[in-house]
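Appendix B: complex inputs.
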Amino acid sequence: MEVLLAIIIGILYAAGIYMMLRRSLVKLIIGIILLGNGANLLIFLLGRITEGAPPIIPGESKVFLEAYADPVPQALILTAIVISFGLQSFAIILVKRAHKVVKTDDLDEMNATDEDS
Amino acid sequence: MTQQLILYPLLLQLLLAILLMFFWKRIGAQRIISMLGSIVHLGVSIGVFAYIWNNGTQTIQAGGWEAPFGITFIADTFAITMVLLTSIAGLAVSIFSSGSVISDRLRFGYFPIFHFLLLGLTGAFLTGDIFNLYVWFEIIIISSFVLITIGGEKAQLEGAVKYFTLNFLASIIFLTAIAVLYGLTGSLNMADLANKVAAVENRALVEITAILFLIGFGIKSAVFPLYFWLPASYHTPPSAVSAIFGGLLTKVGVYALIRVFTLIFVGDVFLDQILLVLAIFTLFSGAVGALVQNNIRKVFSYLIICHIGYMIIGLGMFTEVAIAGAIFYLVHDILVKTNLFMISGLIYRIKGSNSMRALGGFYANYPKLSLLMFIPLFSLVGIPPLSGFWPKISLITASFDTGSYWSLAAIIFASFITLVVIAKLWAEVFWKDAQEIPVRPKFRYYHKIKNIKRIQIIVPIVFLSLVTLYVGFGAEHIQTLATRISSELMDNQQYIDAVLNTQISE
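Resulting structure:
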């Protein structure tokens, strides 16, 4: 399971960065989304995967009796998902506006900011 | 009760931001609330600063969960100094925004977002938890995305696309670094991490994590190979927005770098070498970049990059004197860079252009304003009694002590080129004869706007210039402060003890 997840994370990071390096604005957004998901899965994997042991203390005891799944990474992922969701929706609107105003979706043609003015 | 003191600057900004949202359509009310709120915030920050100065580092555990399990907020002298500088710059830019940003832009929630940005900055300085730091960084960048795009001009949107992409990438790399660090140590509290990272046996993995942090924060603080988003975007939004960005956003990256590399990843020669090399290249490329630009705001953008190098070089040399120099430079740089972008805004208001070739004749036409602008411009260069000079003494002394003569050469080179750039700017904009600039019929020139607006534009520049003069002439005080901060940073055990050994008292 760990190996499979590690490979998936690697693919997500690689594909995300590849897409960000492309010139199209839409591919840029796809890259951002892939990278965000890759990072979330990485937190999940590095928090150690423990199967079938929810972090709930049984009714009659005061402490955990055996190994349990670490709940912290899941809280982190939840936060990160919400944040990246917000950022991605902003990115989509931004790209839509930029496309409307600049009238191109080619990042190479977005060079007005580098011109001498 | 006194423990909660350190949260007051944070809560006040949050309160202001929320309060301002209730006045969404009433710009006049927003202006007044933002200005008064910023004045109160400055007062509170000074109060908290005085308290920390007298009583030492204070911590508070959110919800009473003991460290390392809960989220820690910690105010040591470094953090609270940054909060104080944030509120000084925040006050200046808040007043300046009222005067210089046109109301078409203010209508889209400019002031609430501006205070959310300040909230994020304050939070990032005060937090003692690495994931919490990530969250504050996200608050900062989301607010800054909105501020940079308000108005929706072509150049702004293009700049915003670049700014957004690189900053998002930085966040993802930062998050990746946090994930790896959590996998290594199982902790997120920075003090606890400092202990646990020191005990990790797999040093190679620690080094890779450190490099990930370096890249993440390096993009945010515009360090050498990672700065290209900055000159592409900082000159596009209104100058008030550039002022707060130029003054504080890159500095929060530097703050995070200094914090992480003096607390968690300490004593790694390899990393210090990398920091030094990056700093030298940053100094060099920023300076050369500034030399060839024509747009005043682009010149200032490159100078931001160049001067980030001074702080990183101080961190790279990693002696008490060097870090004191870096901290002093940080204090000076926040005040001066904020002021410079406001000045570029003032020049733009007067002439309707920011191109050095098109401008001219300022000294003949506006002698008093020129004298005012002289202060920050030449503080930046570091003409002796002014503020930019003093930190360089520490940095140069430190580079002699550590025998890193390349750093010495880079410091002197960058300082010389800064002098050339500012002298060129002074000759072009102030001394050259006034040029014919086509009059823009709809543009609201300085001589056309109301008196109150002019006061709102001039007062913050005067205010920050006075603070800069104080930093220059009262250098002894700032040096005491910087030395104290650097001794606290060099002895990270103090920080660790302050977080981990506090008793939760009720």
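Residues 360 and 413 of chain B are 28 Å apart (CA to CA).
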